[in-house]
DNA sequence: TGACTCATGTCAGTAGTCTGACATAGCTTG
DNA sequence: CAAGCTATGTCAGACTACTGACATGAGTCA
């Protein structure tokens, strides 16, 4: 391991550290979701539907940070396996409101317990004030990045 | 857009916000790297090699947060296209030290400018003190997650 | 009404990453 | 020395997510 050689300025780059933290979080979530046969996007989709029943495919995609095409593939699988339902025809426009089935809700319950334990572990070393600092700082970073990405 | 309906507790979840920030950063980086024909992992690999010449495939993989198999595929392409070089035989053990070629260095220079502008944009709304807070907090989160992931 | 713009759902093909597996080199331990 | 453990490089197959493209429905405006 020649990694302890010299902490170059990668370790002081907030972008690099953000990627490292996100990667660690994703790995931890995958580790606890795998025994349940779920991926992170799979779980995100169910969690979004539990908190906001009737979300459309595109809205779910934005909420899970994937394209609507990717979410569409996932939704078709979830629908086929009986975790969610969508009306055959759109009540209005082309938007198909999606809802959890009892089976989906049950599956989500197990996943939520697992994911919550990961989040608690992640927050273990932080004070309340540090947690709210982190929320505020991350929101600012998202806003700055999104402004220039969407608008130009 | 029914998204402004109610900020449920997803918006207060540090894990969710971390994913959102990371997703926004990744999208912004992809947007500026695409015109250069580079992916984020591609750039990460070159940047790591510039800062630490002679890193092995496995070390690059850890530094770019992908598996060594994925990095191996990338390195073979980079080597084929003349961005990096690796000795045909390992000087010691099986480890193949990788180095940038002049072409690789030149390619990295353009990418670095683009990526630095993204990072500056991301930090635009933050004070110096907030930036160092963010570094400290993210490091703590990484440590907490990694301890339980590697060691258990 | 008709043209234009935007968002949505969906199909198809591509690219990046992952898991699984194997052989090999170095280190440790009995 | 032999056995076992760990780390590495590599190949192959599978999966996930992405880009590109198309048709359709809603809203805007002349």
UniProtKB/TrEMBL annotation, chains A, B:
**Protein name, per record:** MarR family transcriptional regulator
HTH marR-type domain boundaries: 11-143
- Upper lineage ranks? Bacteria, Bacillati, Actinomycetota, Actinomycetes, Micromonosporales
- InterPro entries, sorted: HTH_MarR-typ, MarR/SlyA-like, WH-like_DNA-bd_sf, WH_DNA-bd_sf
The record's Gene3D superfamilies line, in alphabetical order, gives: Winged helix-like DNA-binding domain superfamily/Winged helix DNA-binding domain
Q: Cross-referenced Pfam families, in alphabetical order?
A: MarR_2
SMART domains with a match to the protein in the record? HTH_MARR
Write down the PANTHER family for this protein, in alphabetical order.
Answer: HTH-TYPE TRANSCRIPTIONAL REPRESSOR YETL (PTHR33164:SF43), TRANSCRIPTIONAL REGULATOR, MARR FAMILY (PTHR33164)
């Amino acid at each position: 391991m020649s990694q302890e050689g010299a902490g170059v300025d990668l370790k002081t780059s907030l972008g690099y550290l953000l990627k490292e933290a996100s990667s660690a979080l994703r790995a931890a979530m995958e580790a606890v979701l795998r025994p349940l046969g779920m991926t992170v996007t799979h779980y995100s989709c169910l969690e979004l539907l539990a908190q906001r029943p009737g979300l459309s495919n595109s809205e779910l995609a934005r909420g899970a940070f994937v394209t609507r095409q990717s979410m569409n593939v996932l939704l078709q699988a979830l629908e086929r396996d009986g975790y969610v339902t969508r009306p055959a025809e759109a009540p209005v426009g082309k938007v198909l409101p999606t809802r959890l089935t009892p089976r989906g809700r049950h599956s989500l319950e197990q996943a939520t317990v697992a994911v919550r334990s990961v989040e608690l572990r992640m927050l273990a070393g932080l004070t309340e004030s540090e947690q709210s600092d982190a929320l505020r700082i991350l929101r600012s970073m998202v806003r700055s990045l999104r402004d220039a990405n969407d608008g130009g």
